[in-house]
Amino acid sequence: MTDSANVTADDKQATTGLLFGLLAFGIWALFPLYWHELDNVDPFQVLAHRALWTVPVCALVLIFRGQLLRTFSALKQPKTVLLLVLSTTLISVNWGTYIWSVSNDQILQASMGYYLNPLVNVLAGLTVFGERLRKGQWVAVGLAIAGVSYAAWAYGSVPWIGLILAFSFGSYGAVRKLVPVDAVPGLFVETLLTLPVALGYLLWLEHQGLGVFLKLGFKTDFFLVAAGFVTAIPLFCYVAAAKRLPISTVGMLFYLTPTGLFLLAAFLYGEPVSQGDLVTFGFIWAALAVFTLERRHHARRRRVTAI
After folding, report:
1. How far is residue 229's CA from residue 49's CA, in Å, rounded to a whole number?
2. How many Å separate Cα 300 from the centre of its chain?
3. For position 183, what pLDDT does the model report?
4. What CA dihedral angle connects 50, 52, 56 and 61, to 10 degrees?
5. 176: pLDDT confidence band, cut at 50, 70 and 90?
6. pLDDT for 83-127, tens place per residue?
7. Which of 51, 111, 156, 244 is the most exposed place for a label (fewest CB within 10 A)?
8. How many CB atoms lie within 10 A of CB 110?
């Protein structure tokens, strides 16, 4: 194959990866539109249905790929199972908090949480993987801490929703990095592990007369069942993007999600954006700018050194 053909193939790969990335992070950015359609359902019941219906979706994909038996073989390793139990707990906390924040008009805090996530990943690298932070990274972390501290001072309370979302998702990513299981099989096992709890909770709700499935009309039932597809599809797109794009590009695309949440909260759902919010987000945005520029500078310097 000629050099020009290689370039064309690489460009096609990059374009396809970019489209998958935009689709993944775009869907995640628009999640409030979906969960608002289930405002008439308790968030914990929505969470249980989300886990319940994600299992068959992932199972079908794994069967189609011929990976189902290989996925179950991963459960023979006790360490892998323990790590997946931990990751399941973390992602369940993240999902539940996120759905609750949408149902209770706290999308701004959800946006803050996901803006903070890359910096939480840096802290995870420091504490879990023994990585050393460079000066610019310390500056970024310091600015983010200043922003959260300002919010606590300005409002008299810590922005718990944003912090729970940031640290649960950041910790989830750190734990999943330790698990030798790919993204889709991992999601299948995680939702499979939550299935007994989710199913037991839904059956208990039915026994108490509190279950909503098949009782509130087709629209509610549709959105509950489709939650499995809505959970799985952006993950599949993300995996496809990550295979085709540099990790730095994927990292930049990540910011589409919290930006979309911020815009939805401010302009569609009318959540008040106070001066205190702007100061807090200003610190966090400054932290992300420092973090991004420092990472680019470090990568450029490494390339120059390698030549």
Report:
1. 12
2. 28
3. 85
4. 40
5. confident
6. 999 999 999 999 999 999 999 999 999 999 999 988 888 888 888
7. 156
8. 28
18-41 residue pLDDT tens: 999 999 999 999 999 999 999 999
How far does CA 244 lie from the centroid of its chain? 19
**CA atoms within 13 Å, Cβ hemisphere of 194:** 28
CA dist., res. 103 & res. 101, Å (int): 6
Give the dihedral of Cα atoms 244, 242, 178, 162; nearest 10 deg. 170
247: pLDDT strictly greater than 80: no
**What CA dihedral angle connects 133, 127, 90 and 248, to 10 degrees?**
20
> Token pair for residue 242?
């990550």
Q: ∠ CA 48-232-69 to the nearest 5 degrees?
A: 95
**Residue 81 tokens, joined:** 């199972």
Which residue bears the tokens 């299981």? 181
- The rounded distance, in Å, linking the Cα atoms of 271 and 218 is 30
Q: What gap in Å lies between CA 98 and CA 80, rounded to an integer?
A: 26
Are residues 42 and 205 in contact, defined by beta-carbon separation less than 8 angstroms? no
Integer-rounded Cα Rg, in Å, for the chain is 21
